[in-house]
Structure formats: C-alpha cells, structure tokens
From TrEMBL:
Pfam families: CM_2, PDH_C, PDH_N. It is found in: Cytoplasm. InterPro entries: 6-PGluconate_DH-like_C_sf (IPR008927), Chor_mut/prephenate_DH_T (IPR008244), Chorismate_II_sf (IPR036263), CM_dom_sf (IPR036979), CM_II_prokaryot (IPR002701), CM_T (IPR011277), NAD(P)-bd_dom_sf (IPR036291), PDH_C (IPR046825). Pathway: Metabolic intermediate biosynthesis; prephenate biosynthesis; prephenate from chorismate: step 1/1; Amino-acid biosynthesis; L-tyrosine biosynthesis; (4-hydroxyphenyl)pyruvate from prephenate (NAD(+) route): step 1/1. SUPFAM superfamilies: 6-phosphogluconate dehydrogenase C-terminal domain-like (SSF48179), Chorismate mutase II (SSF48600), NAD(P)-binding Rossmann-fold domains (SSF51735). This is T-protein. The gene is tyrA.
Amino acid sequence: MVAELNALRDKIDETDKALLALLAQRMKLVAEVGEVKSQHGLPIYVPEREASMLASRRVEAEAAGLPGDLIEDILRRVMRESYTSENEKGFKTLNPTLRPIVIVGGKGKMGRLFERMLLLSGYQVRILDKEEWQDAASLVSDAGMVIISVPIHLTEQVIRQLPPLPEDCILVDLCSVKKAPLEAMMAVHSGPVLGLHPMFGPDSGSLAKQVVVWCDGRYPEAYQWFLQQIAVWGARLQAVSADEHDNNMAFIQALRHFATFAYGLHLSEENVDLKQLLALSSPIYRLELAMVGRLFAQDPQLYADIIMSSPNNIALIKRYYTRFGEALEQLERGDKASFINSFSAVQTWFGDYAGTFMAESRSLLRSANDNRK
C-alpha cells in the first residue's frame, strides 16, 4: 500500500511541476500583453474580457469533469498576480506635456503609491513633505498638478498653507472626507480642483478592480485626462457629489469602523482567549474576527479622524445605538415573534442583494477555511 501511495504521489508531483511550467508560460504571455497595453494606453483591467474568459473556462472545465468553481478560483488568483505583473510594464502617458506633479505628503503610504503609479506612467513627480516645506514655493511654482495626501485632521490646514499655484495647475486631494477639503481647495486656488477618494489601502499591489471615487470641484475638462489615466491603471471610477460622498461614507466607513472598534474593545475588556476563540470558530466568524484584528493593526489616528470627521457621523452612530438597544429589549422580553418579524423586514429590504451577497461570501469563506492552520 505504501509503495502504491508513493507512486501516485510521485505522479501528482510531476503534474504539479507541469502546472508550474504552464503558469510560468502564462505569466510570460501576460507580460507581453502588458507591453501592448502600455504602448496603446489600454486599461489593465477590462471587466467584459475577464467575465467572458471566466465563463468560457467554467464551461470547458465542467465539460472535462471539473467543478467550474475550481477553475474560476484558480484563474482569479492567477489574474490578481497578472495585474500586479502588468504594473511593472508601465503605462502610457496620457498627458505628456504636463508639467511636474507635486505630491504633498508624498512620503506617506498613499502618497508613495500614487508616486509609483505616476512614475510608471512617465510623469515627473516631486515630493513636498514636512522636511521640504521651506522650499514649498519653488517646488509648486511650475507644477501642473498638486496632490494633497496627508492625514484627515491636517488636510484643510495644509491646503490653506499652500503657496500660490499656477492658474492652470490641477489641485487634487486624496482625503476620505470630501466636502470640507473641496471647499478649502476652491477657496485657496482659482484653477481646476478635483476631490479623489481611493477606496483601498496603500498596500494594494495593483489598482485593478479598485474603486476610486471622484468629486468635481471646478473645471472638470482640465482633469479628465487624469481620470482616464487612473482608469488605465485598472481602477473603477465612481462619480458622486461631495455631499453624497460624505453621506455614504458615514455608513461605509464611520459607522462600520466604530462598530468594529466597539466589538474589539468589548473582546479586550472581556479578556477572551483569542487562541481558543480561533480554534473553535467557524470560517465566517474567523473572517469577521480577522477584519476586527485588521483594524487594530493600523493607525488609530486614521480611524479617529474618519469616525469623528463630521457631527453627522456621530448622529448616525447614536441612531445605531438606539436601534441596538431596541433589538436588545426584544431579547430581554424573550419576544421571538418580534425578532423574527424584524428579521423578515430587513430580509425584504435587502431583496435580491441578500442572495447575491450569499453567493459572493462563499468564496471568501472558502478562502478563510483554506488559510486555516
């Protein structure tokens, strides 16, 4: 039995080596694709192409007796690596006559990410950080674009301290709050103004599939090329007003981060045994706990800034607190009927999205389980 098992394992090893060779060949082809896209200014991520390719591979896999989910999981992981690889080939410069770009706060993580993407796209980039502030006037004197990438609580202050910019200079901020920074930029600069919010962390290997929200400040015709450049990097662009942005971020960021903070605080005050909690957890709880731990692995100033950036955020959190209390009262009364009615009402409100989220979450749960040690 041992000899038979070893022989089969040897064949599996050989098959794995063949798979590695095919993956290496695929990555070489991806590199060639990246070069072509770079030359012609094509985005590295094309949703229609990806969806069509995955659908075809699923059909072919099932015809070969393989689960469609298996080949899709493999290809999605391979494509994620491919998008990162394509970055290294650079991108077409969509505005070759643009004067230097100055990133204020360019030594921070997000500033460095944008510096890297802009350099890969052929632009001249200058960094203006605290150490260079005495040279700020000369650094921005001929700038074609100035990007503000500083912590939220410093954003408006830094904007107000900017030296005079060239009239046609594009002033951009990357803050996760939009209304106040946009107003500050338009107050100090009469030229083009654009508000951006990258909806991802600076540790992202690629902008492919990442969402970048943009809010018009002034003269959108002057910065359309920059939005197109970001699209070439593979990002999904979403346009909203500053008010809409901040209202939505109250739910997406402020409320969610506060609830996560409160849950983490509760765990620590209860002094639970994290090791045992993980050993006993289901994949979905492990994933939820991972997202809580992820928050506490980051800069507390960032989350304090996001949560406390607006009185509207606090008002929303207080309404959440009230509803939490009302739901708790149902439990204290042992009122299962009321709980089920509330559950059903929310279920109806979610509608078809509930099923969509159920399907999307399966791959996340499988991944969480795969990574379990």
